[in-house]
From TrEMBL, chain A:
Signal peptide: none annotated. One of its GO terms (molecular function) is nucleotide binding. Belongs to the MoaD family. One of its GO terms (biological process) is Mo-molybdopterin cofactor biosynthetic process. It comes from the Bacteria. This is Molybdopterin synthase sulfur carrier subunit. Keywords: Nucleotide-binding. InterPro entries: Beta-grasp_dom_sf, MOCS2A, Mopterin_synth/thiamin_S_b, ThiS/MoaD-like. The keyword Nucleotide-binding applies. GO terms for cellular component: molybdopterin adenylyltransferase complex. It comes from Eiseniibacteriota bacterium. It holds the Pfam family ThiS. The keyword Manganese does not apply.
TrEMBL record, chain B:
InterPro entries: MoaE_sf (IPR036563), Mopterin_biosynth_MoaE (IPR003448). One of its GO terms (biological process) is Mo-molybdopterin cofactor biosynthetic process. This is Molybdenum cofactor biosynthesis protein MoaE. It comes from Eiseniibacteriota bacterium. It comes from the Bacteria. Coiled coil: none annotated.
């Protein structure tokens, strides 16, 4: 399956890109996506425990299934206001 | 109606939009950019958002505040991009029959905004260096 990954704030700066296409085997979950992204962008590793992940704009958990073609957003701790 | 804007926020217009005959209170909160943080001099602030999700969350805050408190209307606007010192980065306006619920609702909206809306603030310091302000992990 293919995912369109969006990186925000610290995640964007650490990855060095604001978006990327990620290809994973069928049946992959959010944890698999994070594993692959940290392998590809090692600087993301220290941020990983602090990241929230949204699939098509909805927060998901590590064990949640991914959907082919989804938009996956890496969201560091928020600081609006 | 919630808004995300790269232009300066117009608090007066946002306030006027909620003035109505049945409300004796219209409360406007401005969150403004500050030129210091933890003893450091901040020369530049900028905001970034996951815009579609942030907008939906701001709309949810408007809706939920009207359900939780005895208020008649609430609007939230957040600015994105660079915001010069002392300008508003966020404007919350609440209208209610009486003032008490307006104050309560406004505080709640700001507290929730800081916990659940995907917006990030970066500070640049006079002493050198820049940092994303440490924030709150989003919880599903």
């Amino acid at each position: 399956m293919q995912l369109n990954v969006l990186f925000f704030a610290q995640a964007r700066e650490r990855a060095g890109v604001s978006s990327a296409i990620l290809t994973l085997p069928e049946g992959a979950c959010v944890r698999d996506a994070l594993d692959a992204l940290v392998r590809e962008h090692a600087d993301l590793a220290p941020l990983r425990a602090h990241l929230a992940v949204a699939q098509d704009g909805v927060l998901v958990r590590a064990a949640d299934a991914l959907r082919d073609g989804a938009e996956l957003a890496l969201l560091p701790p928020v600081s609006g206001g | 109606m919630a808004t995300l804007s790269h232009e300066p926020l117009d608090a007066a217009a946002a306030t006027a939009a909620l003035q109505r005959r049945d409300c004796g209170a219209v409360l406007t909160f401005l969150g403004t950019t500050r030129d210091h943080h933890d003893g450091r001099h901040v020369t530049r602030l900028s905001y970034e958002a996951y815009e579609p999700m942030a907008l939906r969350e701001l709309e949810a805050l408007e809706r939920e505040s009207c359900e939780r408190f005895e208020i008649e209307a609430c609007t939230v606007a957040h600015r994105l991009g660079e915001v010069p010192p002392a300008e508003p980065s966020v404007v919350v306006v609440v209208a209610s029959h009486h003032r008490g619920p307006a104050f309560d609702a406004c505080r709640w909206v700001m507290d929730e905004l800081k916990k659940r809306v995907p917006i990030w603030k970066k500070e640049t310091y006079a002493e050198g260096g820049e940092e994303w302000v440490s924030g709150t992990k989003l919880e599903g």
